[in-house]
Every structure is written in structure tokens, then in C-alpha cells.
Specification:
Blueprint lengths: L2 E5 L2 E4 L4 E8 L6 E8 L6 E6 L6 E3 L7 E6 L4 E6 L8 E9 L14 E2 L3 E6 L1
């Protein structure tokens, strides 16, 4: 199973930017469909963004479209999430997720992924 470790979270003012990283180890990273989800206490985990194994196609939740960018570096086994124009409602624990699959996937579904990181906290102050 691939191991995932997130970093890059922190406290930022509204309108600011952060870049999250997800370092993968243990398996061939380029075989994995990757995604970011986020969770607020008391709420269900929600889809943020996903990217195919090659990085050629990406998908976004409507709430982050135009502000967030997901990308990956397969040579360095790392997934990224560039977050710009942050809003207080973006405050959450952000987790990366992986699925060893090169076909099409229900990328916005938690059940589609079988490996998860522990998460990194992002707090956006108003």
C-alpha cells in the first residue's frame, strides 16, 4: 500500500495563498489516481480536487474552481494543491487520497480511494 504524508498547512488570512504537498512512498506513484479531500469537524469529508495518473486531466469541486490547482510531480512522488484567494470557509483538515488505477474513476467519491494521509490543518482567518 502506498504511504501518504501531507504538509504545508497553516494559518493564513483571507485572500492569501498556501501550497499543500503530499509525499508518497512505498509504491510506484505514477500508477496512482490522486485526490484532495477536506473535512470540518462534524461534517462529512468533501471532495476538493483530483488528478489522473499522468497529470493530464484534473477535476475540481465547484467551490474551489478557479482558485485551487492540483498538480503532481511523478519524478519526485509528490502531489500538490496550490490554494489561492483563500476564504474562511476553506478552513478544514486537508487529506490526500490515492487509488492504484489508470482508468476512469468516481474521483469525487471517498469510496473510490483506498489510501489516505493523516491530513494537514488549513485555517483561514477573516
Amino acid at each position: 500500500q502506498v504511504r501518504l504524508v501531507e504538509s504545508g498547512g497553516g494559518l493564513v488570512q483571507a485572500g492569501g495563498s498556501l501550497r499543500l504537498s503530499c509525499a508518497a512512498s512505498g509504491r510506484t506513484f505514477s500508477n496512482y489516481y490522486m485526490a484532495w479531500f477536506r473535512q470540518v469537524p462534524g461534517k462529512e469529508r468533501e471532495f476538493v480536487a483530483a488528478i489522473t495518473w499522468s497529470g493530464g486531466t484534473s477535476y475540481y469541486a465547484d467551490s474551489v474552481k478557479g482558485r485551487f490547482t492540483i498538480y503532481r510531480d511523478n519524478d519526485n512522488n509528490t502531489l500538490y494543491l496550490q490554494m489561492n484567494s483563500l476564504k474562511p470557509e476553506d478552513t478544514a483538515v486537508y487529506c490526500c487520497a490515492a487509488k492504484a488505477y489508470r482508468g476512469s474513476l468516481k474521483y469525487d467519491q471517498i469510496s473510490a480511494f483506498d489510501a489516505w494521509g493523516q491530513g494537514t490543518q488549513v485555517t483561514v482567518s477573516s
